[in-house]
Amino acid sequence: MTDDKAAPRAGTQTLERGLDLLDLLAERPHTVRELAAGAGLTVSTARRLALALIDRGFAVGERDGSLRLGPKLMQLGVRAQERLNIVELARDGLRSLADATNMPAFLGERDGDHSVHLHRVGGGQRVVVTTPVGTRRPLPETSLGKALLMDEAPAALGALLARRPAPQPSFLADLAADRARGAVVHRSPPPDDLRAIATPIRDAAGRIVAAISVVSPAQYVDDAALDGIVAQVRAAATEISAALGHPTPAG
Fold first, then answer.
1. 13 φ/ψ angles, rounded to the nearest 5 degrees
2. How far apart are CA 41 and CA 245, in angstroms?
3. Residue 161: beta bridge partners?
4. pTM of this structure
5. pLDDT, tens digit, 9 for 90 and up, residues 214-225
6. Rounded to an integer, what distance in angstroms lies between the CA atom of residue 38 and that of residue 152?
7. Cβ contact 53:70 at 8 Å
8. Largest Cα–Cα distance of the chain, in whole Å?
9. Nearest-CA neighbor of 242 among 92, 105, 114?
């Protein structure tokens, strides 16, 4: 008599073992013996699963006997990336951030030398910043723009500033401090007199693909409150980045 429940479980176990091997290959190339040791399998089982992965294009064998990730995974990654909509992924996180900080929250991306506002969620303050969706601003002028520049190489950053001069003489020093902090803290002088905090959104490869920010008139935010708001913005960015496949930092 056949146990109807045994077959699905066996298939699930095989799938889980295959995924374990892919997790190991995502770290670096492995030999079959290394895969067996890392996944807690016999060498014969690891070899059988490795051959199945190679047959389907999920792994590729190298001349030295090791295996690496194959083109099928790259194709799937590209297709998944094409289907991701950054506004949809960020919408709930921005709403939660605006509710938690009582400040309007913004999402933007880079377009050449400019940042472009993609989405805005209103906060609860009586006087609010109402920058509309579609607004384009030179990157050095806004907190979103600074966050989008956090990974910019020195030569590229210098070329950008030659084309789009920063409004503050301390721009480079401020950006270095922002990088160390992991978030931009922007204080605009009167008459605007705004406080803004921004941090980048990263994809699975660690590239900056967008940024989020919260902005408030200075009358609602004193310096003592900024550290807590920085932590909230960073947490929201981590959550949105995770939805794009970026690894969540340990701890």
1. -65, -40
2. 28
3. none
4. 0.67
5. 988 877 777 777
6. 37
7. yes
8. 83
9. 92
Which whole-number Å values give the CA distances from 156 to 9, 125, 195, in the listed order? Answer: 54, 38, 27
- Choosing among 2.60.120.600, 3.30.360.20, 3.30.450.40, 3.30.479.30, the CATH entry for 84-243 is 3.30.450.40
Model confidence at 82, pLDDT cuts 50, 70, 90, reads: low
Which distant-in-sequence residues (6+ apart) come within 8 Å of 112 by Cβ? none
In this model, does residue 44 exceed pLDDT 60?
yes
pLDDT tens-digit map of 201-211? 999 889 999 99
Domain ranges of the chain: 6-80, 84-243
Measured CA to CA, the distance from residue 144 to residue 47 in angstroms comes to 49
Long-range contacts of 4-7 (CB under 8 A, 24+ apart): none
CA separation for the pair 159, 154 (Å, rounded): 9
The answer to whether 197 and 209 have CB atoms below 8 angstroms apart is no
Across 64-68, 122-126, 133-137, 194-198, least confident range: 122-126
